[in-house]
Amino acid sequence: MALSGLQIFKLLAKTNCKECGFPTCMAFAMQLAAGKAELDQCPYVTDEAKAALGEAAAPPVRKVTVGAGDMAVTVGEETVLYRHEKRFEHMPGLGVLITDEMDDATVDGLLDQLKQIEFNYVGVNLRPRVAAIKAADAGKLAALVAKADEKAGAAIIIMNDDAAALKSAAEPIKDKKPLLYAATEANFDAVAAVAKELNVPFAIKADTLEALAELGQKALDGDFKEVVLDPASSSLGDVLLDQTLIRRAAVKKTFRALGFPTIGFPSNMTDDKMLEAVYASVFVAKYAGFVILSDLDPARVLPLLYLSQNIYTDPQRPMQMDQGVYPINDPGPDSPILVTTNFSLTYFTVSSEVEASKVPAWLCIMDVEGQSVLTAWAAGKFVADAIAPFLKKSGIEEKAPHKKIIIPGYVAQISGELDEELGEGWEVQVGVREAADIPKFLRQWSAN
Question: Is residue 319 part of a domain?
Fold first, then answer.
C-alpha cells in the first residue's frame, strides 16, 4: 500500500540538508509519495527506513535489466508520463527476432549484425542489443540461445510456452539475466517458479489489460520485482491505446499491477518492412521497454535509434562535449583555429564540415554548459572576457603559435572586445554564420 508524504517524512532523517535536490525533507517526502523522486536521492536514509518504505520507494514503473556487460539493457524506472515533466530514464532495448524456422546462414547473419552494428550520434554510441530467440523444440531453443550468447553476447529474450524448455535454455546463461517469455494465465505458476529459481526476469502476456493486470498483481504477490508486460497489441491503434493506458495507470494512479516496463513485437504485426518500422517508432515514442524487429536493416535501425536518443535525452540538460582543443584532419602549427561552444550538436555540425573541407584545423570547444552559440552569448557565457581566459589556458598557443582565432559569424560583435581581452600577438577573425559555408571559408583562409 502506498504511503502518504507525511508517513514517508516520519521515516526520513529530517536533516533538511538539501542534498537530495529539494529544500526540505517534507518536500522530498511529498515528491517521493508522488513518484517524482527516488529514495536513493537522500544520502542519509537508513536501511530500516528503506525496508519500511518498501513500495513507496519504488518508481511507478519498475526497473528491469536484461543481459550483462556492454550489451545489457536496462529499462523502466520511469516516473513521468511526459518527458518535459522531468525526463525519461532508459532508452528502449532494440532487438531482432530469431526463430528455429530460419536457416543457419540467416541466423548467423543476424547475430553478426547484432554484434557489429553501431552508430555514433552526437557523441553517443547507439546500437541494437537484444536477441529474441523463439523455438518450439526445447533442444533447438537451447542451441539458438547458446549461439546468440556466444556470437553476439546479446541481451537475450527466450521465447517458449513451456516452462521446462525455458529453464533448459536459460540455465546455462542465468548469470547474464535472460528474459523468460512469456507467462500467461495457463502457465504463470510454472514460468514464475523457473524465474525465481534462476533469479532472472520474466514477461507476462495477456490479450486484455484486465487480464494483464491480474497477472501483474499475481507477480507482485509473489514478490517479483523484474517483470515485463506484453499486452499483445495487434494493430497500431492497439499499440497507442495499450501503451498509453498502461503508463497512465502506473504513473498517474500508482497502479502497481501495471507498473512494469513493456515489450512490443512490430516484427509480428506486418510483413511490410517499412510499415514495421512505423509500428516500431510508435512503440519507441509510446513507452515500450523492448522493441523487437524482424531484421536489422541499418536503413530502419538507424532512424529508430536516433528517435530513441532524441526522446530519451534529458530536456533539462543539454547534450555537451568536454571542453578542450580538438584536432581535425591532422592539423599543424600553421592550421586555422576555430572557436565555438560545447553544445554537442554545434560541435558535430562544425567538426563534420571542417572534416569535409579536408583542411587541417584546430577546433577549440569552450564549456558554456551545453548551450548553442547565440544562447550562450545572450546568457553572458560566450563573451570576450570568458573566451579569452579559456583560449590562453587551453594550450592552443603551443599547438598553433600564429594565434589567429576564428569566431562564429553570429557573434561578430564581440570581435573587437575579444581582441582587446586577448592582447598583443593575438588576432581575432570573424568566420561564417552557417556551418555549410565552413569548407569554402577554410579553403580560402588556407590559400591566404
Answer: no
Report d(CA 96, CA 106) in Å as an integer.
Answer: 12
Task: Say if residues 312 and 286 touch (Cβ distance below 8 Å).
Answer: no
**CATH label of the domain that carries residue 194:** 3.20.20.20
In residues, how long is the chain?
448
State the Cα–Cα distance between residues 429 and 225, nearest whole angstrom: 60
Number of domains in the chain: 3
**Pairing relation of β-strands 119-121 and 124-126?**
antiparallel
Task: Give the torsion through C-alpha atoms of 355, 357, 361, 366, to 10 deg.
Answer: -60
Task: Please choose, from the candidates 36, 42, 47, 48, the residue with its C-alpha nearest in 3D space to the C-alpha of residue 77.
Answer: 36
CA distance 209 to 256: 13
411 has a pLDDT exceeding 90 = yes
Instruction: Please check whether residues 40 and 72 belong to one and the same domain.
Output: no
Helix (H, G, I), strand (E, B) or coil at 202: strand
Q: Are 279 and 238 in contact (CB under 8 A)?
A: no
Decide if 340 contacts 317 (C-beta within 8 A). Answer: no
DSSP string of 134-173, one letter each residue: E-SSHHHHHHHHHHHHHHH--EEEEE-S-HHHHHHHHGGG
Q: Identify the domain containing residue 194 by its residue range.
A: 64-311
- In this structure, the answer to whether residues 181 and 306 fall within a common structural domain is yes
CA distance 378 to 273: 46
**pLDDT confidence band for 192 (50 / 70 / 90):** very high
Q: What is the pLDDT of residue 56?
A: 63
- Asked if residue 125 has pLDDT above 60, the reply is yes
| Joined grid coordinates for residue 267 | 516484427
Please, what is the end-to-end C-alpha distance for the chain in angstroms? 74
Q: What is the pLDDT of residue 1?
A: 46
Q: Are residues 53 and 161 in the same domain?
A: no
Note if the pTM is more than 0.85. Answer: no
- Encode 315-341: b = buried (16+ Cβ within 10 Å), e = exposed: eeebbbbeeebbebeebeeebbbbbbb
Express the helix, strand and coil content of the chain in percent, nearest 5 each: 45, 15, 35
